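Q: I'm writing a short methods note and want an example of a predicted protein-small molecule complex. Could you take the sequence and the SMILES for zinc ion and return the bound structure as tokens? Please keep the output block clean; save any remarks for afterwards.
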Amino acid sequence: MFMNRRKKVLVIGLDCAPPELVFEQWRDELPNFKRVMDHGAWGKLESCIPAITVPAWSSMMSSKDPGTLGFYGFRNRGDYSYEKNTLANSNSVKTDRVWDVLSRAGKKVITVGVPQTYPPKPVNGIQVGCFLTPSTKNPERPYTYPASVMQEIESIVGEYLVDVPNFRTDDKDYLLRQIYSMTEKRLKLVKKWIAEKDWDFFMFVEMGTDRIHHGLWKYHDPTHHKYEVHPVFNESIHNYYRYLDNEIGQILDLVDENTTVFIVSDHGAKKMDGGICVNEWLIQEGYLTLKSMPSSLTAIDKCEIDWSKTRVWGDGGYYARIFLNIEGREPQGIVKPGEVEALRDELKAKFEAIVDPHGVHIGTTVYKPREIYHEVNGVPPDLIVYFGDLFWRSVGTVGHGSIYTFENDTGPDDCNHAQFGIVIKHDPQVDEGPGGRELSGLQLMDMAPTILKQLDVPVPADMQGRAF
Ligand SMILES: [Zn+2]
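A: Understood, no commentary inside the block.
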């Protein structure tokens, strides 16, 4: 009876959803997650390095590592000058992602909010831009492909929200209202299109999970150093997952038995213990020299750096990017090319020895791009640093008067990213047995070939992951 079976794939992306909550802590309280897990296959999904939204979703959907893609975060150096920074939106993605391959194979695709899909590109179907969309109202720069879909979306949900504006806020009531408003609109749209549009591949990514973790983790996690008892906020992440679970149940009821459903995240979440002020540290250690110390918190690119006495500088974010001031590469480089490797090793050893304010070793890991990627394109950092296994973030500003800070320089933020996200695969034609089958050893890049295989489309030879 399945002679003409039309296989379909639905990918539900939950940015930042961690295995600890979905698979362990709340497994029995989320009946719809549990339903797909119990009949499917599920496991931790290792993120890329760095484990952040850009590049993670593009790595997942192109099956290429960040070095091959040539971007290492939202912000990248545009060249080897000191000034040029670029933002990695869809224009930075020079390779096919799964919907490009599927479009060429004649499959109908719909993507909604997948990070790095603004500006949207032509597909055989619909592409709705991601959280990088600056405006949903500018017909000159449509956030959808085709552009006419902008109006269709407005007629369904009113003003569509690609993200929560100013999500790093102390006004948590506002934050929660905005998150629910955004998610409700997106899910209303997605449910309508899943039911009514013609598609072989449908993927959407919900950013609310990421925003609620960053904004409210200190209320959720009693071991957080800023944990507070609060009548509403303590349960806010838990309640949001219950709400999502109910929505996922409705979505599952809309798809037929030929549709394989994936629930996937790009990285996990963990409490943030504090920040390491990476440039303060470099100054203390004599690697970085400023012409004058700023009197208040100042971004490193606003500081007057004495390049003739600077060998190393760094950037902030969930991880640190470290740059060497190399002779012949940077305009005023002073590190001799022959000394680069020794300097990198010296920095790696010192970073990995960093202790917290109580003298306790925090377990920092330092990566050399050439050792972790197939190719190294664009302008990579010379070193990538995970402070304290990502329990500590990297703070790039100067003026803290210490290498430690417990306030985030870009606004309140309670959580950092963790290296492992989740994947659940539910193919109604394959019963994986009671409790489902636990998967192990999977990495983001395994997703794209798995989706293609599921849809019987050949996997391009340059994809770096393996189908599961
Ligand atoms: Zn993310």
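A: Remarks, as requested: The pocket of zinc ion is lined by residues 15-16, 53, 56, 210, 266-267 (CB under 6 Å). The mean pLDDT is 95.
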